[in-house]
Amino acid sequence: MNRQALLESLKTQDRFDLLIVGGGATGCGIAVDAASRGLKVALVEKNDFAEGTSSKSTKLVHGGVRYLEMAVKKLDRAQYHLVKEALFERGIFLKNAPHLARRVPLVTPLYTWREVPYVFAGLVLYDLLAGKLGLGKSILVGGREAKRRFPMLRGENLKAGVIYYDGQFQDARMAVTLALTAQRHGAVTANHAEAVSFEKKDGKLCGARVRDTLGGEEFDVRARSIVNAAGPFVDRLRQMDEPDAKPVVEAASGIHIILSSRFVPPDTGLLIPKTEDGRVLFVLPWQGHALIGTTDTPAEIVEHPRASEDEIAYVLRHVNRYFDLSVQRSDVLAAWSGLRPLVKFDETANTAQQVREHLLMVSPSGLVTMAGGKWTSYRRMAEEAVDQAIASAGLQAPGPCRTLDLKLFGAEHYAPEILQVLTKDYGLEADVALHLRHAFGDQAMNVARLAENEGLSARLHPEHPYIEAEVVHAARHEQAERVSDVVTRRIPLAILDNAAARAAVPRVVELMAGELGWNGERCRQETESAMERLRISI
Fold first, then answer.
1. Are 366 and 206 in contact (CB under 8 A)?
2. Cα dihedral 146, 152, 156, 162 in deg (nearest 10)
3. How far apart are CA 12 and CA 30, in angstroms?
4. Among 93-107, 174-188, 201-215, 350-364, which stretch is predicted with the lowest mean pLDDT?
């Protein structure tokens, strides 16, 4: 169903059981849970799916090694249970979205002997907490083996290393996949649709006024329960419901840079356990590049935050301390920032010390708010939110939560053999076929068929595996309405290589114009808007 048909469904449906506001990890996850139980579900997102925080993560599905360290040091039971729950959810995540998520080994370098038993014991405990859903046993290796696994490591005084395993995924595509999964179960999910006000009857919420941010039309959506899943902006919605509501969320900036593949092995990452101010830094292989980043800088809550030059310099400074080869500002292909919504459980703690738990609240008018959390725990958060909405509004769900074993869109018939079909039957180059298999799973053949039938096999940029058929497919089947929807989220070109994304914009505009019927003025506007957004991401 295309976006226009989805908007018509929003307008004409008499009443939904659940209206979800927010189309990131939390909102899309709630839509999947509720719709798969048989509830009538609507979701509206002011921008694009995962346009904010949910497409700007470190791309890790993890329990949180640092949080486990804090749990042990401070005998903090909350941190301990947070890690244990996240490791369980990590296993479910990889099982239900095998095309989008995989395990990745990470090296933790140790430069003093006193670190060796402490770090190794901590990572063994990390494995034990994962239980049967563990991704592999941590092993202790000598300095020479650690450097062999991650050749870029500074070898001087390298005593040993610990190899452990976590999960890695494609965050923006995961959000779109969740939206498509929810639609498959009957949900109406509309991006570029903003809830501008709430409607009440006898003091209880009964719907919302929604504005199509592309066309400008406003209309009412009626619902028995409304769920606030707006990420860093949950307090804005809470105050739309209750003007005097006290804020419960603060933000931490997540800064990431992208370097070429020569700065990371193709299948192994690096965990720098402690920076000069106590943060954790990851160096990860991702989409054929090196993704390097960290979080926990206090930040103002704004849309489309920009990575500052000071933050970029911070990351480069620490990478150079651990690398044998020099990394310069000119090596940075892209840089971007996202806001992590942290629940303020402890008013005295800084953002690095806040527990990454989520908070579920219900206002007197019935607004269900899910605040905080992280990608790894999205499924559990969704289950809790739907349970609460059912209880608060007295909804009758035809079935129980199904998401523990629910294969997501693209995963039902996914198999590694898809790669051979794409290369042999459709003649796609190996890197293009590999990308399509991981991005689309069992739907990859639909994109390949589109490329073959409509002559859309050309690459959008010669150095990247993304092809023209993906643009048309995104506009036709994945609700991509803006150029930035495509070049930043349906494919990750903008966050991998800013210059390549700029070069691809004219062709993307041309393809989307043909598919969506844009006139010359709309093409000009989209080009300008995309270029402006790309200026933020470097």
1. no
2. -20
3. 22
4. 350-364
User: Is there a domain that residue 237 lies in?
Assistant: yes
In which element (H, E) is residue 57 found?
none
Count the Cβ atoms, other than its own, within 10 Å of residue 420.
12
First to last CA, the chain: 35
Digit-coded pLDDT (tens) for 370-401: 999 999 999 999 999 999 999 999 999 999 99
* Residue 341 structure tokens: 């919504």
Element of type H or E holding 426: none
Q: Between 458 and 273, name the one with better pLDDT.
A: 458
DSSP class of residue 345 equals: S
Q: What are the distances in angstroms from CA 79 to CA 68, 119, 350, 446, 462?
A: 7, 17, 16, 44, 46
Q: Looking at the structure, tell me whether residues 236 and 379 fall in a common domain.
A: yes
The domain containing residue 261 runs over which residues? Answer: 101-168+250-343
- For the stretch 40-83, pLDDT in tens is 999 999 999 999 999 999 999 998 887 787 777 766 777 888 89
Q: Please check whether residues 435 and 488 belong to one and the same domain.
A: yes
Of 35-39, 76-80, 147-151, the range with the lowest mean pLDDT is 76-80
User: Is the alpha carbon torsion for 10, 15, 21, 27 positive or negative?
Assistant: negative
CA angle 316, 322, 328 (to 5 degrees): 30
- Please give the helix or strand (H or E) that residue 436 lies within, else none: helix 430-440
Spatial distance between the Cα atoms of 256 and 300, rounded to a whole number of angstroms: 17
Instruction: Give 280-286 contacts, CB < 8 A, sequence gap 24+.
Output: 280/65, 280/66, 281/315, 281/318, 281/319, 282/58, 282/60, 282/106, 283/319, 284/58, 284/59, 284/60, 284/104, 284/106, 284/168, 285/104, 285/261, 286/59, 286/168
Q: CA-based diameter of the chain, in Å?
A: 71
Higher pLDDT pick, 65 / 29: 29
| CATH label of the domain that carries residue 449 | 1.10.8.870
Instruction: Report the alpha-carbon distance of residue 236 to residue 242 in Å, rounded.
Output: 10
How far are the Cα atoms of 327, 439, 510, 532 from residue 332, in angstroms, in the given order?
A: 9, 24, 29, 19
Cα separation, 442 vs 461, in Å, equals 25
Q: Are residues 217 and 232 in the same domain?
A: yes
**Side-chain half-sphere exposure of 433, counting CA atoms within 13 A:** 15
